[in-house]
Write a structure and sequence with these properties.
Length: 372
Amino acid sequence: MKVPMVDMLAGYPPIKDEIETAVKNVFNKANFILGEEVARFEKDFAAHVGAKYAVGVANGTDALRLAIIASGIKPGDEVITSPFTFIATSETISQCGAIPVFADIDPVTYNLDPKSVEKKITKKTRGIIPVHLYGMPCDMDAFTALAKKHKLKIIEDTAQAFTGKYKLRGDWKYLGSIGDCGTFSFFPAKNLGAFGDGGAVATSDDRIYEELKALRNHGSKVRYMHEMEGYNSRLDTVQAAVLSVRLKHVEKWTEMRNAVAAKYAEALKGVCVTPVVPSNARHSFNYYTIRFDTKAKRDNAQKYLTEQGIANQIYYPIALHLQKAYAHLGGRKGDLPVCDQVQDTVFSLPMYPELTDSQIKTVTDAVKASLK
Ligand SMILES: *Cc1c(COP(=O)(O)O)cnc(C)c1O
């Protein structure tokens, strides 16, 4: 049985009519740029995340870029982030003229390790970008304490983790509402996917909010009045209409993802390492990532699943500090030993809310068979 990595259409039939009506409305009004659907979605999304504001932007990469600028990070500043993430996290730091500094990751959560981050703090450090990788919450108690101590900004890269939660000093919070800014992607395969590109920044800071609104629209809040230079990075009105419909279902989908994850974990007990979700966290399970004790076993499992028609992916095969794009920063294998080990031994299985029991069995049987 072929099993895809994600199936965007599996959840479509029940909401098809509602989405088509919402999209038709936009077509009929032809308010394609910053139409009222964008403002409505921003309001609903901010309320869902538990932030005062959300600003819709063109994609998750621009969400990072604009959040970095609006947080006051300037050329020459250092921003510490994870080497084990998609390059959008670090390329936006560089593109703002700042310097990405990679710290090591935690061997259990694969997220940025606060102890390693603290060691990388210098006089030039201005910010930290924790990435809630695969949807697993970062240790935000530690990061907020570090930021307070060293006066740093926190931008949470929440691209993979919308609907994930973290119990911050005893209080449950949605990921993306804890730092100065939280950035989100609505790339189709993310937890809340649009039918194209989209992104948002959540913040509860009035000044950051005002700056984000200007930055996404050429530095302008009143047409042809420019307070600064900005970007053309608006959330498309058609996408906002789609997102508003999908937003109403996203909690249910995350529950379904968690149910799939529980079945995977049960079937793979004792076979490989499955995600360990701390009791102070709710995982959004954008991806389901397992780990083997050797690279050979991982490579073999990957090859076997692929032969069987079971989609799978290594997120991420080469950590950022070892990529050619960052050769100028001088990163070497061995600098971040936990990251080195994790990149060689993880891979991700198909994950989406509607994955069936028989598909789950096909996948987990194949993982077991690959080890024989
Ligand atoms: C997807 C993703 C992004 C970028 O989002 P786009 O909408 O594709 O630009 C940034 N960071 C992480 C961790 C991601 O997974």
